[in-house]
Amino acid sequence: MSPLPLPVRVAAGLVASAVEQARDLPRIVVELPVTAVSQALQASMRVQQKVTELAIKGDQALGALRPVEERPAWATFDDEDDVVSGNGARAVTELRPHRTPEPPADTAVETAAATTAAAAEGRSAERAEPVQADAAGPNVLPGYQELTIPQLRGRLRHLTLDDLRTLLEWETTHDNRAPYVTMLSNRITTVSEG
């Protein structure tokens, strides 16, 4: 038997393909909304990526023309010495140590007992005493427990390595707040290295 002409074979192939796609039509119709939404989301994400890339390139181009301020005017912190008052005049704030109230009699007895125990163990009495404190914080930084992270950051610069270790010990035995422990640990590392 001789083969059929090419156009007849192509037409038969088209009919067979149409029948196969007609059978798959219910599945394709169900998947069509999901596919359309997925393609739309992909296109949206590509557009967002392009916009972000353009913004980064724009920042780089503008950064070369205009240097970034080392300290923007809006960046003021609690630990700075110069503060602008409400009337626009500059005022100098002073860091004053908080006055520690006299401990109650039972705390004084505990402090004396800790000092005696430290002396018996061969440690200095000075090392045992600073850890003792009222509920607001250790003696090296009264009111420590009420300080916010920015306030604490400003006061840490003025403390010695032993004071920092005392604060860290007090924090870990009392509240053990992760940001405070991290800040104190980092400051201890900085002071001991430099």
Report on this model:
InterPro entries: LipDrop-assoc. This is Lipid droplet-associated protein. The protein has helices at residues 6-65, 105-121, 125-131, 149-156, 161-173, 178-193, and strands at residues 82-84, 90-92, 133-134, 137-138. It has 194 residues and is mainly alpha-helical. The chain folds into three domains: 13-56; 102-131; 133-194, no CATH class. Strands 1-2 form a two-stranded antiparallel ribbon. It has a two-stranded antiparallel sheet with strand order 3-4. Helix 5 packs antiparallel against helix 6.
Query: Uncertain segments of ≥5 residues (pLDDT<50)?
Result: 122-133
| Count of spatially separate domains | 3
Order of helices and strands: HEEHHEEHHH
Give the terminus-to-terminus CA distance: 97 Å
Portion in beta strands: 5-15%
Radius of gyration: 36 Å
Total beta-strand segments: 4
What does the largest sheet look like?
Answer: 2 strands, antiparallel
Strand line-up across the major sheet: 1-2
Global morphology: elongated
Protein name: Lipid droplet-associated protein
